[in-house]
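Quiz preparation item.
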């Protein structure tokens, strides 16, 4: 047995607690919009796993019902499990929630628990999480993401240009809520960021197939858009394949942020419905889920892009061989900076996990988080 293994010999999860915090957006009139949705807040569900005086943190973004799911279904299951084997607990959790529902809320709950268990193991070994994972990289390139459809044009241009000024060479704008307004918005953005940065567009599934094909061609020809995310619904696999096959050759089609299970990802890959696959560590099964998806993309020679949750994704996706980049999403960056110490800022257009901090390197800022609490109680 290795020295590290000996340190975890007989170590079991002693307890799990769950919290949720709902933070209002900072968008116009208190809301933000994309092609198909309007929201006025973002909820983070936090899971903490404890053993031998150490605490591992995991979280997901979803409804407060995810917190109840963790507390009722997964916390009792995980308590007493071997700390050294997060994938074993992940497998048991998947079997245990079969009838309650593996996709959706179940997948998000499982993801948060899995992240907490990996973080706990790394903290007990006094290692940064990337040193515990089979890492291929020491950094994850990012693209700036926000550009909501209800932003005034001035704010839209300022936000995306701000990321470029920070050294981020790729930025994304939300589109297709009002397609006729997009030319003015895209022109303002392209003028603000200049010709060199890559410009991405995200329709969030707002368009019909032929409408999406029309805008794909215009986006690429007029504003040099290179990435078109969810031009049609991510559930419309035939529509995604149509866009991938008939759209401009240098415009990549992307989807996958709403994939919860391995089968969801396989459906996007066989036959290919995307040029670049996306995965959300807080939805697809946590760290263990990302490792599985990374294997699928490597075998099929397709890149994988991390969807949001930058504080976790910066660690998890270092272990993805076919890594493309990470969505540095405005809402999550803002919320994680509010609730945690130890978050990362882009350096040379990438996030680099801190080798001097164990686990994810995060600590909860309880005093700052408390006003936003909607579930659980502050630890003593």
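Solution:
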């Amino acid at each position: 047995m290795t020295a590290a293994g000996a340190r975890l010999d007989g170590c079991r999860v002693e307890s799990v607690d769950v919290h949720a915090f709902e933070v209002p957006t900072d968008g116009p009139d208190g809301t933000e919009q994309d092609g198909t949705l309007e929201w006025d807040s973002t909820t983070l569900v936090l899971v903490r796993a404890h053993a031998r005086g150490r605490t591992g943190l995991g979280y997901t973004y979803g409804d407060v019902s995810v917190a109840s799911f963790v507390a009722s279904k997964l916390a009792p299951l995980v308590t007493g499990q071997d700390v050294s084997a997060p994938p074993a607990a992940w497998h048991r959790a998947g079997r245990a929630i079969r009838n309650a529902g593996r996709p959706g809320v179940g997948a998000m709950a499982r993801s948060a628990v899995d992240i907490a268990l990996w973080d706990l193991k790394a903290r007990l070994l006094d290692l940064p999480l990337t040193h515990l994972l089979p890492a291929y990289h020491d950094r994850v390139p990012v693209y700036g993401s926000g550009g909501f459809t209800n932003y005034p044009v001035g704010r839209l241009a300022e936000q995306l240009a701000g990321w470029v000024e920070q050294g981020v060479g790729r930025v994304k704008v939300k589109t297709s809520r009002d397609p006729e307004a997009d030319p003015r918005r895209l022109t303002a953005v392209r003028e603000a960021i200049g010709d060199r940065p890559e410009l991405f567009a995200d329709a969030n599934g707002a368009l019909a197939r032929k409408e999406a094909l029309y805008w794909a061609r215009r986006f690429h020809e007029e504003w040099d858009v290179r990435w078109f995310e969810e031009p049609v619904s991510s559930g419309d696999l035939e529509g995604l394949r149509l866009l991938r096959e008939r759209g401009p050759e240098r415009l990549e089609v992307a989807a996958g942020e709403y994939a919860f299970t391995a089968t969801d990802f396989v459906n996007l890959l066989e036959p290919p419905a995307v040029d670049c696959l996306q995965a959300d560590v807080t939805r697809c099964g946590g760290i263990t889920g990302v490792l599985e998806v990374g294997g699928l993309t490597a075998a099929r020679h397709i890149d994988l892009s991390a969807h949001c949750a930058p504080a976790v994704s910066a660690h998890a996706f270092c272990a993805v061989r076919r890594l493309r980049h990470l969505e540095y999403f405005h809402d999550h960056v803002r919320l994680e900076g509010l609730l945690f110490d130890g978050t990362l800022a882009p350096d040379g257009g990438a996030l680099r996990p801190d080798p001097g901090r164990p686990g994810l390197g995060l600590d909860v800022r309880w005093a700052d988080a408390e006003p936003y609490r909607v579930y659980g109680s502050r630890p003593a």
